[in-house]
Amino acid sequence: MPGIDKLPIEETLEDSPQTRSLLGVFEEDATAISNYMNQLYQAMHRIYDAQRFPLGGDDEVMSSTLQQFSKVIDELSSCHAVLSTQLADAMMFPITQFKERDLKEILTLKEVFQIASNDHDAAINRYSRLSKKRENDKVKYEVIEDVYTSRKKQHQTMMHYFCALNTLQYKKKIALLEPLLGYMQAQISFFKMGSENLSEQLEEFLTNIGTSVQNVRREMDSDVETMQQTIEDLEVASDPLYVPDPDPMKFPVNRNLTRKAGYLNARNKTGLVSSTWDRQFYFTQGGNLMSQARGDVAGGLAMDIDNCSVMAVDCEDRRYCFQITSFDGKKSSILQAESKKDHEEWICTINNISKQIYLSENPEEIAARVNQSALEAVTPSPSFQQRHESLRPAGQSWPPTARTSSSGSLGSESTSLAALSLDSLVAPDTPIQFDIISPVCEDQPGQAKASSQGNRRTNPFGESGGGTKSETEDSILHQLFIVRFLGSMEVKSDDNPDVVYETMRQILAARAIHNIFRMTESHLLVTCDCLKLIDPQTQVTRLTFPLPSVVLYATHQENKRLFGFVLRTSGGRSESNLSSVCYIFESNNEGEKICDSVGLAKQIALHAELDRRASEKQKEIERVKEKQQKELSKQKQIEKDLEEQSRLIAASSRPNQASSEGQFVVLSSSQSEESDLGEEGKKRESEA
């Protein structure tokens, strides 16, 4: 029958807020029908009670007054008795049956559905709180079984409730028409008994109404049979979906979506360390992520996900969590999916929307093409220039050199890499490292020592825990940035920014191929001595990069959140003793600032090194002068000693001259020997 609105039984398993809102409209309609039917029942019951009052017979006043009309009154009384019987059968019975059976059935199913919905919500909450680290198979099996039972019960109850509400749309028309039809037929029969002047047109009208009621009943029976068959088919097809985490082999992940909707648990902070999780319905609309609570008519904006970043995170020992960060890094949200399939599909969908694929005519086809390009991106191409020209948009060309403020190198500027092959940029068969591991090995004792010293906990209050002083405390520059590590790989060239761009492309392509969405967040500390990656929670230094070893750094030319630098270390996969490793990071739209900060640190370090060398040279000059002064002083002292010895010799020769003139001095043999020895020693000193 045209004009009959129905509840979609196929959407009962999804249980979206739109379905709940439509269900609320049908429930309000059922309540209005119930109130109206109660009033109609009371009105018709008054008519029925009025017809049961006899007009003659036992009333003595009427008998005495209207004796002459006794025959007519008896006949009318019998006609009214017949009318009362017909009203009871044709008018009161249908409306009483609709009121006592159909409306009560709706109220009962509503209560059962509400109980099943509450049980399902409680089971979902228990499942969401399952521990990821302390996993208990028995508890997990009980919780999954509880979710399966409650979801199946809710689905079946909701389908039968929807079926009853859809049937009510037909029954309310029958319940309105049948009592009126019975009332009219009873009145017509009543008047036919007294008069045969009833028009044929009214009889034809009533006949048509009766035919219409029969057609509605037949259509209702057919629709009920169809809905029952649909319920049986959906019960069989939806049985695997009752499990909260279905088998990914049976339900593969679709990575080409640009629109998705479903329930997620949202984390809301209530204090410094406390938080709550609210289950809401989320859906994407263009470049926006919308949320809608159960019972709301429409959804509200949760976050703008154009140019956003999304990654899988560990949060409060809950599984399937991911974090969305806005393009400016000022807003982030942590959400929890119900299953691994939903978890990966949400991340892929938000990634596709972040690339603004949804603005194209065929977004899913373009998303599939982009994913296919990512799969083919790691296949070596003939040359670096050809590969980048194939990925370059129409009418746009790469700049010949990188910006001086966002890239730098210790060596002289190299020539363009347009003619170089892929092997001259990245070492062939180079493994990619997606997690932060300190590069300590037996062949690098100096670096191991530096790493062991750098991996100690830094005091957030600025107090030194021991007698040693941190090597970065005397640094002029201290700048801290929030970064996420994407990966690192060994490169063969470190004198051109194109090496960083090629490494970014290969790492991002490898992440897309292997479905690696998790990134380690760290604090990057830039000083005049080194670059440090610090754990944001424990304040432990994860990795230290000496600033002199950072020979190249650059940001992505289109996505300014991506930046990387090349570290030159001793040892490696090449035959020479030096190797170069390129590290790629993602920041909160601060890639240029980080590169500028590194450039400033290298300039400060260069000036400090020049000052140190100048100071050492000045100290060396002062040491030479001091040495010359000491030599001069020594020479003067020697001359002075010689003069003193000459004076003593001259003084000792005068007594000998006096004795030759007649003055004699008697000396003992011992004194004579001593004087002889002394004169010989003085002679040797004078000769020296």
UniProtKB/TrEMBL annotation:
GO cellular component terms attached to this protein's record: early endosome membrane; nucleus; phagocytic vesicle; ruffle
Keyword Signal set for record: no
Residue span of region Disordered: 377-410, 443-471, 625-688
PH domain: residues covered: 257-355
Coiled-coil boundaries: none
Sequence ranges assigned to domain PID in this UniProt record: 481-617
Cellular compartment(s): Cell projection, Ruffle; Cytoplasmic vesicle, Phagosome; Early endosome membrane; Nucleus
A Pfam family hit: PID
Bilayer topology annotation: Peripheral membrane protein
Alphabetical keyword list: Cell cycle, Cell projection, Coiled coil, Cytoplasm, Cytoplasmic vesicle, Endosome, Membrane, Nucleus, Phosphoprotein
Superkingdom of origin organism: Eukaryota
Primary localization class, coarse: other
Sequence ranges of Polar residues compositional bias: 449-458, 653-672
Entry-linked CDD domains: BAR-PH_APPL (cd13247), PTB_APPL (cd13158)
BP term (GO), one: cellular response to growth factor stimulus
PROSITE patterns in alphabetical order: PH_DOMAIN, PID
InterPro entries linked to this entry: AH/BAR_dom_sf, BAR_dom, DP13A/B, PH-like_dom_sf, PH_domain, PH_DP13A/B, PTB/PI_dom, PTB_APPL
Basic and acidic residues composition-biased segments: 625-646, 679-688
Protein's UniProt name: DCC-interacting protein 13-alpha
